[in-house]
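RECORD TYPE: protein structure
NAME: PiggyBac transposable element-derived protein domain-containing protein
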Amino acid sequence: MHHTNEEASIRNLKLTNTEELYAFIGILILMGANNDSELPIYDLWGKVLGKNIYTATMSRIRFGELLSLIRFDDKQTRTERRKQDKFCPIREVFYKIDELFVKYYIPSAHLTIDEMLSLFRGRCPFKVFMKDKPGKYGILIRMLSDAHTRYILKMEVYAGKDERPAEERSAKAVVRRLVKPLEGTGRNVTTDRYYTSIELAEELYNDDKLTLVGTLKSNRRHIPEELKKTQGRELYSSRFLFTDPKTGKAPVTLVSYITRLKPTKNLLLLSTQHNDRKVDESTEKKKTDVNLYYNETKRGIDSIDQITRHHSVKRGTRRWPLCIFFTLIDIACLNGGTIFMKNNPDWNKKKHNVRRLYMLELGQHLVRPVVEERAKNIIGFQKPIISAIESVLGKTLPSTSVAVPSGASYSRGRCHLCLKTKSSKREKDKMRKVSIVCCRCCKYVCSTHSAKTIICTNCENEGESE
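PREDICTED:
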């Protein structure tokens, strides 16, 4: 709010407040729940595609202003800070929200680390290309999440190369930073082949008291040649290697599993949670317990991208900080919904679109205080706006609330009774505009077609006292 008001002061626009910003976020959430994020703003406040809750909360022009004004850092010091930190325009807001995620949720024993691509094709100094992700271009976000509930616990944005040492920018350092809030808890972390290494497994086991399960690249160090060889091996066969207990090192288990012949494909897995040779003999593929556990825990994180994009609040923008802000709202809705469902397991239990229903409830709660505030003084509002407010609040506003005091100043319009006497459009355009509205129908009316009531101040005061 502070930095948005700084930008509004520079442009000589109306300042905002906390309630209005909450209502602004609430409208974004409602647009995401209704899949309206890709529609033009003009249509959403229109008579055909528009919805009452948008019209009742704020005007279309005001929503566009807030969308353009919203800022997340000090604009005056941004140039100096950006020399050392490319992510500085939204870093403070990003990590303030990120710190709250792990504070309000106790995760299960199964955690997963993976990547999420916040789609963006504009100008950004650390935009990446990932051919396997939908959309391909965007901002890379690395996440630690609960494998079962998909709750995101910790995030880190890849902001390009910086002046940090290579050790702090490595995949191993990223994992260590993400799991730091949960170190010493005995949980398991599942990673893909980009992050998994024997060094990481030993450090997590010895220093952080965490186990690791993940796939391995064949070019990683310390992988014996016996696991890489595929010649003469049968389809769906497995080989195991274990750390010698006499060495006193972490109990690392390596598995080599043949998934395909001609050409031969070898899947390498690592685990510090499993220390046996168990294989599922009941199926044709004879997968190991390590492989089955990896597939079970990795499946949840792969669906986060799909879930957040299905009801996303993200609107088209050329500003990458605003794109990150939209992604934060998507993730906050996902996490908030998870906590709400855990605390209220019977809420809309038989319905399949529970996440959308939660977003609708959340958006309505955020915009309601502003709608109630607007309902207290609707002088000068057009009839469609009043009807929208009544629809959202579920009650009819008293006629006294639309009474127009003498000399009231607001927008002007042409008398609706005079318009009926004019036939051509040219004659209607030449009509003089007035600033008086009827206290009952709220339509503009001229002095010819209106009646005035004169009352002295003494009688007015007596009426108020009664």
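COMMENT: Residues 5 and 374 are 21 Å apart (CA to CA).
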